[in-house]
């Protein structure tokens, strides 16, 4: 059982096997992925504020290393699922900015045809299962992905992301119990940004030391990860994922991170429940993108100029996506009734019998 | 050739045939494997198919139902047994936010071929928490299919269709039907599957239509015999079999024939399946009605325990006969 806690001294994980194997191009790609997430979301924020989108917008800015670090370890048999803060995972698995921005705009060209919105991005062809709006509601689904892999005889694992608020949901605890009991290859990743919406962890969770320690009650392995260090995220996630793939044993990783904005853009009080000093301290000293850039420059992998070029490219891509979204057609009113049932979209012999699904 | 089977045997035969037909079918739930099923529907299946195909779960509905939904997204076809449908409340988020919505929210990218089955009914004197009748509730969530068979043959044919369906199907079985018997076609005669959404006219009449589903069909048939013997009234008894999809044509056909309707539904009076059917009839066949549409439903209180009067809270043959006679 791990004895690492949030207060453990900093270690250098660059020499771990999974990090040593990274080429310079791989490292730059990780940087590019984090930058693209940030620029995409800043673009989204701009147009959300301008009234181009409906609903909520839960920004991932500040947490980029979590999605990018963990998903960079996925192979073709690994699957992943997350909660409502899902833009980063979608971009990291290879969904393009256009389909995501168009979904935020509620357009027909969106990844879910304008039916899902910000909290509901999906790409099953990329092993990405969303995008789920109920806190903790995706945790049994992540268990099911792991169960499915094992049942189908595939050597892979399921990554199930959640916020720190989800640790208090019953569905999460039920999932842990079954995951350990049935030996399901799932890794639960708590993206701990310190706040369950506007309520700090200290006011919402009863815990000793860290949240991941709750795994011990289920006889499950766990670890705490410094999310501002991409090498550490990869090194520790790799161990948990291999444990799942090779031994069918679940784990919990609690990755400490921070969000710069509110719970969602609609969270008007986020500068009241957190001090400006706290936010500025994180930005100045723990920003995962800045730290990774600095590290790569120190390693001689990246230059300030090439980093700036990558950033400029990401900004340009993001700007193009909002233009694409803005110019895309809205879904038709008729399309409201599509995609409710597989059967109404794919007529079968049985459908010809005149059975009715809808009132009109 | 057909044989006489109990409702539970017919269901079991359907499950067994689908386990044999498709290696991705897996049965899961509370007590389904080593205990042989709380209501013995899955008796013998664990011994025959083993730990991988027939799986006991903890009493942990949100966890194991959500697990089944997640596995179904990957192509497994889980058949999940709820020991009582009344326990749906524990897993409600998984049932209505995940299973019902994921296809829509993903713009049609994700399928969820899962079956949830188990007993849903009152009439067993187990009090309010164990007597919910939620077919109308779940039929109100687009994305879900709901059925409630009344006979052994229908139970077998419909469960097989449900397992092959690519949408989530919620299968409501009445505990009090498990021991009832009926003719079921022999497997040697071929694959016996009844499509969801096709009603069955269980009795022919000309004077009044009694439209029902689940165990109430049995009551409706008993009431129809009393009406014939004591009052000379011939009733059409239409068994909906599935609630969503609904066989609207069959409903309109019987109404247009008899011009009088009594709907029998174990749901509570406020809302429920019969409220929807009543609306459809007045909307589509108002001109054919010679009398207002009447309903026999479960009286609008939480289920009472008392064995002396619980049957009076539920639809029963006497209440159906009285309601039909009130049409005059």
Question: Could you explain how this protein is built, in words?
Answer:
The complex is a heterodimer of chains A (360) and B (328). Helix content of chain A is 41%, strand content 9%. Chain A has 360 residues and is of the alpha/beta class. In chain A, the strands form two sheets. In chain A, strands 1-2-3-7-6 form a five-stranded parallel beta sheet, with helices on both faces. In chain A, strand 2 (158-163), helix 7 and strand 3 (186-192) form a beta-alpha-beta unit. The longest helix of chain A is centred in the N-terminal third of the chain and has 26 residues, at 24-49. The termini of chain A are far apart. By secondary structure, chain B is an alpha/beta fold. Chain B is 37% helix and 20% strand. In chain B, strands 3-2-4-5-7-6-12 form a seven-stranded mixed beta sheet, with helices on both faces. Chain B has a five-stranded mixed beta sheet with strand order 9-11-10-13-14, sandwiched between helices. The chains are: A alpha/beta (360), B alpha/beta (328). Chains A and B meet through helix 6, helix 7 and helix 13 of A and helix 3, helix 4, helix 5 and helix 10 of B. Chain B: It comes from Luteolibacter rhizosphaerae. Chain B: Its cofactor is thiamine diphosphate. Chain B: InterPro entries: THDP-binding, Transketo_C/PFOR_II, Transketolase-like_Pyr-bd, Transketolase_C. Chain B: Keywords: Oxidoreductase, Thiamine pyrophosphate.
Blueprint (SSEs and pairs):
The complex is a heterodimer of chains A (360) and B (328).
Chain A: H1 17-20, H2 24-49, H3 64-71, E1 79-81, H4 87-92, H5 97-104, H6 139-151, E2 158-163, H7 170-182, E3 186-192, E4 195-196, E5 199-200, H8 201-204, E6 221-226, H9 230-247, E7 251-256, H10 276-285, H11 288-298, H12 304-327, H13 342-345
Parallel strand pairs in A: 1-2, 2-3, 3-7, 6-7
Antiparallel strand pairs in A: 4-5
Helix pairs in contact in A: 2-3, 2-11, 2-12, 3-9, 5-12, 6-7
Chain B: E1 2-6, H1 7-21, E2 25-29, H2 45-53, E3 54-56, H3 61-73, E4 77-81, H4 92-99, H5 102-105, E5 115-119, H6 135-139, E6 145-147, H7 152-164, E7 169-173, E8 181-185, E9 200-203, E10 208-212, H8 216-231, E11 235-239, E12 242-244, H9 248-258, E13 261-268, H10 273-285, E14 294-298, H11 310-313, H12 317-325
Parallel strand pairs in B: 2-3, 2-4, 4-5, 5-7, 6-7, 10-11, 10-13, 13-14
Antiparallel strand pairs in B: 1-8, 6-12, 9-11
Helix pairs in contact in B: 1-7, 3-4, 8-12, 9-10
Pfam families (chain B): Transket_pyr, Transketolase_C
Cofactor (chain B): thiamine diphosphate
Keywords (chain B): Oxidoreductase, Thiamine pyrophosphate
């Amino acid at each position: 059982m791990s004895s690492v806690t949030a207060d453990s001294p900093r270690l250098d994980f660059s020499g771990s096997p999974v990090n040593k194997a990274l080429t310079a191009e791989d490292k730059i790609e990780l940087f590019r992925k984090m930058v693209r997430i940030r620029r995409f979301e800043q673009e989204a924020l701009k147009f959300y504020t301008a009234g181009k989108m409906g609903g909520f917008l839960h920004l991932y800015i500040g947490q980029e290393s979590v999605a990018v670090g963990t998903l960079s370890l996925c192979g073709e048999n690994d699957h992943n699922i997350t909660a409502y803060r899902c833009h980063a995972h979608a971009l990291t698995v290879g969904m393009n900015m256009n389909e995501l921005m168009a979904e935020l705009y509620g357009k027909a060209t969106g990844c879910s045809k304008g039916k899902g919105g910000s909290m509901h991005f999906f790409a099953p062809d990329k092993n990405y299962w969303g995008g789920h709006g109920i806190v903790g509601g995706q945790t049994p689904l992540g268990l099911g992905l792991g169960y499915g892999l094992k049942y189908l005889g595939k050597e892979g694992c399921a990554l199930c992301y959640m916020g720190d608020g989800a640790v208090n949901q019953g569905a999460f605890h039920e999932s842990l119990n079954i995951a350990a009991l049935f030996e399901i290859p799932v890794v639960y990743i708590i993206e701990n940004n310190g706040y369950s919406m506007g309520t700090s962890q200290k006011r919402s969770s009863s815990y000793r030391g860290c949240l991941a320690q709750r795994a011990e009650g289920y006889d499950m392995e766990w670890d705490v990860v410094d999310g501002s260090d991409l090498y550490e995220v990869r090194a520790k996630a790799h161990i948990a994922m291999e444990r799942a793939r090779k031994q069918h044993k679940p784990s919990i990783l609690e990755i400490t991170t921070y969000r710069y904005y509110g719970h969602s853009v609609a969270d008007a009080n986020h500068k009241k429940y957190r001090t400006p000093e706290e936010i500025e301290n994180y930005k100045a000293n723990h920003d995962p993108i800045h730290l990774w850039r600095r590290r790569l420059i120190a390693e001689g992998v990246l230059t300030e100029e090439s980093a700036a070029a990558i950033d400029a490219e990401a900004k340009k891509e993001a700007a193009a996506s909002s233009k694409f979204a803005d110019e895309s057609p809205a879904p038709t009113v008729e399309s409201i009734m599509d995609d409710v049932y597989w059967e109404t979209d794919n007529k079968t012999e049985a459908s010809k019998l005149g059975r009715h699904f809808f009132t009109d | 050739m057909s044989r006489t089977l109990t409702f539970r045997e017919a269901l079991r035969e359907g499950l067994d045939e689908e386990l044999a037909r498709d290696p991705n079918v897996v049965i899961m739930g509370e007590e389904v494997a080593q205990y042989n099923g709380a209501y013995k529907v899955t008796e013998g299946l664990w011994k025959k198919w083993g730990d991988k195909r027939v799986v006991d779960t903890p009493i942990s509905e949100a966890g194991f139902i959500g697990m089944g939904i997640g596995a179904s997204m990957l192509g497994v076809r889980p058949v999940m047994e709820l020991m009582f449908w009344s326990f749906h409340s524990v897993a409600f988020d998984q049932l209505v936010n995940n299973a019902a919505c994921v296809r829509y929210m993903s713009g049609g990218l994700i399928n969820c071929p899962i079956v949830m089955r188990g007993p849903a009914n009152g009439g067993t004197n187990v009090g309010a928490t164990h007597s919910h009748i939620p077919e109308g509730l779940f039929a109100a969530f687009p994305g879900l299919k709901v059925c409630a068979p009344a006979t052994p043959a229908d139970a077998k044919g419909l469960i097989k269709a449900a397992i092959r369906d690519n949408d989530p199907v919620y299968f409501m079985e009445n505990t009090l039907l498990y021991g009832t018997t009926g003719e079921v076609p022999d497997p040697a005669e071929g694959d016996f599957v009844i499509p969801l959404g096709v009603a069955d006219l269980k009795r022919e009449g000309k004077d009044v239509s009694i439209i029902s589903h689940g165990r109430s069909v049995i009551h409706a048939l008993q009431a129809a015999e009393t009406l014939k013997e004591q009052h000379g009234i011939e009733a059409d008894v239409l068994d909906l079999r599935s609630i969503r999809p609904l066989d609207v044509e069959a409903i309109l056909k019987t109404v247009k024939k008899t011009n009088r309707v009594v709907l029998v539904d174990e749901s509570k009076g406020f809302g429920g399946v019969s409220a929807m059917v009543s609306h459809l009839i007045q909307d589509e066949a108002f001109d054919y009605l010679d009398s207002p549409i009447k309903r026999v439903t479960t009286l609008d209180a939480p289920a009472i325990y008392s064995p002396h009067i619980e049957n009076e809270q539920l639809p029963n043959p006497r209440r159906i006969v009285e309601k039909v006679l009130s049409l005059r």
